[in-house]
Amino acid sequence: MKYLNPILNVPTTDPDDARRRRLLNILLLGTLVAAMIGLVSIVINIILNPEVSQSETQILLVGITVFTLGIFGIYLVNRRFSGRLAALLFLFLLTAIFSFTDTPEELSNGRSLFLFTIPIAMSSLILLPQASFLFAALSSGIVAWLAFTIDHSVNLFGPIGFFILALVSWLSARSLEAALKDLRAINMDLDRVVAERTQALAESLDRERIEAGRNRAILNSIADGVIVFDTKWNATLANPAVRSMLDFPLELIIDKNFSEIIEHPKLATKSRALLYAMMEHDTQPVGFRVEWGGKTLSVSAAQVDSRHENIGTVTVFRDFTREAEVEKLKSTFVAIVSHELRTPLSAILGYAEMFKESVYGPMNEKQVNLAERIMKNTQRLLGLINDLLDQAQMEAGKLTIQMAPVKPADLLESLHSVMDKTASDKGLRLTSEIDDNFPEAFNGDAARLQQILVNLVNNAVKFTDQGSVHVKLFYPSQYKWGIEVSDTGRGIPESEISYIFDTFRQVEGTATRVHGGFGLGLSIVKQLVTLMSGEIKVQSKLEEGTAFIITLPLVPAEAAQSNRRSP
Amino acid sequence: MKELALIIEDDEDLASIFAEALRGIGYEVEQVADGRVAQERLQNGIPPFLILLDMHLPHVSGPDLLTNIIKKDERLSKTMVIITTADARMGDTYGDLVDFVMIKPISFVQLRDLTARLKPKE
Q1: Cβ contact B105–A382 (<8 Å)
Q2: A485, A537 Cβ separation under 8 angstroms
Q3: Does the N-terminal peptide bond of residue B105 adopt cis geometry, omega within 30 degrees of 0?
Q4: Candidates 1.20.1530, 1.10.287, 3.40.390, 1.10.472; CATH matching A324-395
Q5: For A222-319, which CATH class?
Q6: Counting one residue from A and one from B, how many pairs have CB atoms under 8 Å apart?
Q7: What is the ipTM metric for this complex?
Q8: pTM for this predicted structure
Q9: Mean predicted lDDT score pLDDT of chain A
Q10: What angle is formed at CA B71 by the lines to CA B68 and CA B72, rounded to 5 degrees?
Q11: Which CA distances in Å does A49 have to A41, A44, A65?
Q12: What is the Cα–Cα distance from B5 to A229, expressed in whole angstroms?
């Protein structure tokens, strides 16, 4: 068929015309092959039977040759010129040939009558559906004329049969064409839909490509280093900022596991441990610091969820070097300033005390009172500076918890020694208790625990006008212990509770001015408790009082004997 | 004879307040404001009855004086030591080596009362 197609095809765009002309070509080819076989068989016959009449054979040979040339001519007309004309010529040729293939008797009224049905049936297919009537008429005419030449009456059944056949051919050809037309219409619809869909798909692919390109461009222009990991912590995507930030060639990061990336020699050991912890526990930290090749980087990680399924983690590395330097400078500055302020204040306090104690001769009541006021204000200033210093140290991450054996009784004793006077000056009672089963000693940072207690009691005294402040050390379970500082003060409005641990709330908050102030004290308490892996809660009722409840992990102390004495 | 108290403190004002507190209850007071001078004084002079030792000193630090001189010199074995520091950590670290730790700011009255208790009864 591959080789036949170029021979059979015709140059036309009308599908009906093409179908007819192609069909004609097939018929022409078939006829040609039949003629060839006829030619070959005659030649063989001549070779095998030399005694056969020469003249008859010659007529046959000439006839077949002319026929072959005629068929070829029709083929050329069909291909180059017109299908209709070629079909008409072919059908006429067939009819003409059939008119001479037998005796007039047989043709008009005998065995060869059927030959005329061939062009009739063909005509409806290769010319026009209604052309079958034309050839039925033509064949009837020929049959009548042949009958007339041999003085026979016309066999009416022949022409009637021709017209019935023409009718059937016409109907079937017409319905075939109608069916084909419908099919073509359906096909065209289908083609149109396919074309539309293809177009839409191409457009959406284009859009997606543009979108992806835009996202990529955005990612590439971000100054922060971004690495996307799959669920097994293999890097799938990284932006160029990573290269300078981590000193790591971009092409080497892709497909690397996070654990390999953080084996980088320029990563500080302590920072590596932090990053390992992040990977192993699948935590999603925000802005923790790591030291990487002389830079301070702030690392954040977040899980990427798609359709409620975790598909990996995106980590962002931000260059925090400058900020870290500024922070360090700030905390150094605060530390120096605090120290420099504290020293003269200590002197002022000492001198004022000397006045009060009448070291250089007797003082009258007003002078003593004045000295006391100087002392009180100096102490307030000192307290604020201490808080600032602690805050600065905590911000710089310098404040660490140092564990040593602590006796709970010592904690309370030294709390009383510091705060009893403050409470009694305001007409309040400071009471304390320790749970019965409380261990005699445990591991803790005595100085920082003391600071927590003093800050909380100070705060309670500040906000209580009458009644008492009660401190309780409790022991709820084997692995926990706690501090509860409760007062009978004015309480904290619910709207304020979430702010009371904020740094510098006292200075900036408007509401706190009315109340006289939560300052750095509570913020430091909260930070210290967090440093000790504990938690702090507040329970408060307006006009009834407030309780701060701290729970801390209990680290048992084996040898709690401390040689420290205190004055 | 009055007990001798050596005040090693680089801040002039604090030193004078400490001195006043101690003199007031009958100590004989000697003041040194520099670590190196203090080192020489401790090695050569009469062993004091009491030392008030600041931890932050120029040239030779308080911890150095404490661990390398005071704790090693046989002549100073009976001397009482009070360290004075603004840093509670210092107190935690060196508290076991000394008799008392006082965290600055130090109250005049507190220092006076404490040192008065330390004086031997007459």
Answers
A1: yes
A2: no
A3: yes
A4: 1.10.287
A5: alpha beta
A6: 66
A7: 0.88
A8: 0.49
A9: 83
A10: 65
A11: 12, 8, 21
A12: 69
